[in-house]
Write a structure and sequence with these properties.
Layout: H1 2-34, H2 37-48, E1 49-54, E2 61-62, E3 68-80, H3 85-110, H4 115-127, E4 133-140, H5 141-147, H6 157-160, E5 162-171, H7 179-182, H8 193-197, H9 199-203, E6 207-213, E7 219-227, E8 234-237, H10 241-258, E9 262-269, E10 275-283, E11 289-290, H11 307-316, E12 325-327, E13 332-335, E14 338-341, E15 350-352, H12 353-358, H13 362-373, H14 377-386, E16 404-405, H15 417-422, E17 427-428, H16 431-442, E18 447-448, E19 453-458, E20 461-465, E21 470-472, H17 478-493, E22 513-521, E23 532-541, E24 548-555, H18 565-583, E25 601-605, H19 606-615, E26 621-623, E27 629-634, E28 641-645, H20 661-670, E29 674-678, E30 683-686, E31 699-704
Parallel strand pairs: 2-8, 26-28, 29-31
Antiparallel strand pairs: 1-6, 2-3, 3-4, 3-5, 6-7, 8-19, 9-10, 9-24, 10-11, 12-15, 13-14, 16-17, 18-21, 19-20, 22-23, 23-24, 25-27, 27-28, 30-31
Helix pairs in contact: 3-4, 10-18, 11-13, 11-17
Length: about 700
């Protein structure tokens, strides 16, 4: 009995323990369910659901004529939720009925798999009930539009299971054109240019989307839980695509020919300060050139283009007149233990101040600075500060270099600082600062702030307009301004021998005022031993009514054969100015036509020739009788050219001499001839004589001049 009672007692005790434990578990479950339920449900959701950020559509950067310079292109990742209720209802009847036609459409659209392979791929996803199956990544907008009309897909997301995840890529449609100035928004990289300066406005407001994680670490969006992003604002720049293209090509050609290290070319609108073009090209390791750095806003020793500031100071303080004479010492002068050298030696005679400026004499500027400012250097430096050469321009580009204008209190000031500053050494300014000064002279003394962005737009509506900003109403007195303009005109137009820019612009159909510059620059620890020169040319045109100011600065390779500003930077300036003046002729100063090497003979479509003659206000005698093709030629010296019809027969080889390549190709290929082309310009000769019986598919060679 005792044993039985002892066993029963233990059983009852275990039973009571189990009951007590059950009550504790039930009590704890009740407590968790009611008291802590909200907390644990939230924690569970946080492990399976979360908000992700939705990037806003980045704003577009436009040129002044509304060409897209930088824009976001949408692309789509296409997923399929094979577990979608609408796809699997009625034992997957909807999926089965559309499988063949959908596979065929996908194969035709993407052309990466056959119809059979797509069918097999879709069947596997359906059997595996894949919830977020990636069908195609990086689908373009055009292909996405086609995809939306495909069988099954057009029935909507719930019935088809198709999910499109939208992303965007940043694209510069014009490639190299102003690439460094515009910049390119890139993931995990430092933005540059306008993309960086206006990043907060371009990127807009980020949105949020609730997503639910599923097996495999993927997630799907939760319908109805999405906060829309706010798209970025669009930027309208002051850049002109055509001028930018001209500047880029002219600069690239000169850099390539001289194997230069890098260069920049900036074009500014005189009256407003708008930057119409800003090209920056640097030599890469493979010998090509790319917009790698914004050299336009990097401070360097400017060289002789700085002499304009020295002349302004001397004339404004009435220290000299343009007719004063001085001895240039043959092109070298010792001062305080150092020797000042001119780029080229001179005759041992006296020169006027104006002539000294025109021949770009370093000796002249150094002598004048020492003679008139050595006892009070701050008088000279105050002029430089008033011209804002000691401060950045404030252009809307981050990363603008800080200029350096020494003063007697500077740690590096020496007994030769003043004379060297007078001709552009021992100072650091950016090409853009130099351009701003010359633009002020062109603009009758009014200094304009350079700027790149003219407006901000939102949904096509202008929300902010940037107006031209005047920094100084007058940089100097009217009399000084007139003398400075006379000096700059003389550099490019003087008949005196030695004017550094006169030969470059001789015979030009418009007038340029400007200044050449050639500066020896240091090469790191090697100093000046490598004879690296920086070539510059800055000026404005046309001189009588300036419309554009332009600066070209090129850093040459060591021991370059050509390094003078007029021979390296000058041709870039002239090519750009020639093209701008030809593209926008001034009705008040019509261009005088000059007969070319083809004896004033042009041929082509009649309507095109008439358009050119009419646009340029050039007279001619019309004998074309409204024929489709015609030729323009001079009949007698001094008389008007004649526009005469040119007969074209279908079975006869036509005469394409005098035509441009476009017209010649169109005419010859329309007659089923194969064309081989050599040279550039107009057609000078053709291998098959005009009037010869035409043989189809025959090859004809044309030589351009």
């Amino acid at each position: 009995m005792e044993v039985k009672r002892d066993i029963l007692w233990r059983v009852y005790l275990c039973f009571l323990g189990i009951v007590a434990l059950s009550l504790i578990v039930l009590g704890k479950a009740f407590y968790i369910q009611n008291a802590q339920g909200a907390y644990w449900r939230g924690l569970a959701d946080s492990l399976h659901q979360k908000f992700i950020e939705l990037d806003a559509e980045r704003g577009t950067i436009y040129s002044e004529d509304s060409s897209m310079l930088s824009t976001s292109i949408p692309y789509f990742n296409i997923y399929i939720d094979f577990g979608a209720d609408g796809l699997r209802e009625k034992n997957g009847r909807r999926f089965t009925e559309n499988l063949d036609s959908l596979s065929l459409c996908l194969a035709n659209l993407f052309q990466d798999h056959t119809t059979k392979e797509y069918k097999k791929l879709l069947l596997k996803g359906y059997r595996d009930t894949a919830r977020y199956f990636l069908l195609q990544p990086n689908v373009s907008f055009q292909k996405y539009q086609q995809l939306r009309d495909f069988p099954l897909v057009r029935q909507g997301r719930n019935k088809s299971g198709f999910i499109a995840e939208v992303n965007s890529k940043r694209l510069n449609p014009f490639g190299l054109l102003a690439n460094r100035t515009i910049g390119l928004a890139r993931a995990n990289a430092q933005n540059v240019g306008l993309e960086r300066t206006y990043d907060t406005l371009l990127k807009g407001e980020t949105g949020r989307r609730l997503v639910r994680y599923i097996a495999g670490g993927t997630y799907i969006p939760v319908e109805g839980y999405e906060i829309e992003s706010e798209n970025g604002k669009d930027i309208i720049t002051t850049l002109d695509v055509n001028i930018q293209d001209m500047a880029e090509n002219a600069l690239l050609r000169e850099l390539t020919d001289n194997e230069a290290e890098h260069g920049t070319c900036i074009v500014m609108e005189v009256a407003t300060g708008k930057i119409k073009a800003i090209a920056n090209l640097g030599r890469q390791s493979d010998g090509t050139y790319w917009e790698d750095l914004n050299y336009a806003i990097r401070a360097t020793e400017p060289g002789s283009t700085f002499k304009l500031a020295t002349m302004l100071s001397l004339l404004e303080d009435k220290k000299v007149t343009l007719n004063d004479h001085l001895n240039l010492e043959g092109g070298s002068w010792k001062v305080n233990g150092r020797t000042v050298y001119d780029a080229e030696p001179h005759e041992n005679k006296t020169f006027s101040v104006k002539q000294s400026f025109e021949i770009s004499s370093n000796v002249a500027m150094a002598k004048l600075a020492m003679a008139h400012y050595s006892s009070n250097p701050n008088q000279f430096i105050d002029h430089l500060k008033r011209l804002k050469l000691n401060q950045a321009t404030g252009i809307d580009l981050l990363g603008e270099g800080s200029p350096i204008i020494k003063t007697p209190k500077s740690r590096t000031w020496s007994a030769t600082s003043l004379p060297w500053m007078a001709f552009g050494y021992e100072v650091l300014v950016t090409p853009l600062q130099t351009l701003m000064l010359y633009n002020a002279v062109a603009n009758n003394g009014r200094m304009m702030k350079p700027y790149l962005v003219s407006a901000l737009q939102e949904h096509g509506i202008t929300v902010k307009q940037n107006e031209p900003t005047v920094l100084l109403d007058k940089i100097c007195s009217d009399n000084t301004l007139k003398l400075l303009q006379e000096c700059l005109w003389g550099v490019c137009n003087s008949t005196d021998e030695g004017a550094t820019g006169a030969k470059l612009f001789k015979g030009s159909f418009y007038k340029v005022s400007g200044k050449t510059g050639t500066a020896l620059v240091a090469n790191g620890s090697r100093g000046y031993a490598d004879h690296i020169y920086q070539s510059s040319f800055v000026g404005y045109f046309p001189s009588e009514a300036p419309k554009y100011t332009c600066i070209v600065v090129i850093k040459n390779h060591p021991f370059a054969k050509n390094y003078l500003g007029a021979k390296v930077a000058g041709p870039v300036f002239k090519e750009l100015a020639d093209r701008l003046m030809s593209a926008n002729p001034d009705p008040a100063n019509p261009i005088n036509p000059v007969r070319d090497s083809t004896r004033f003979y042009y041929a082509g479509l009649t309507k095109d020739i008439k358009t050119v003659q009419s646009t340029l206000s050039l007279g001619y005698t019309d004998s074309s009788e409204n024929n489709k093709w015609s030729r323009l030629y001079a009949s007698n010296p001094g008389s008007q050219p004649v526009l005469n019809k040119q007969a074209v027969a279908r079975q006869i080889v036509p005469d394409v001499k005098g035509m441009g390549l476009k017209d010649a190709l169109y005419l010859l290929e329309s007659m089923d001839l194969k064309v081989a082309v050599n040279g550039s310009g107009k057609v000078r000769s053709q291998s098959i004589e005009p009037g010869t019986a035409l043989v189809k598919r025959q090859t004809i060679s044309i030589q351009l001049n």
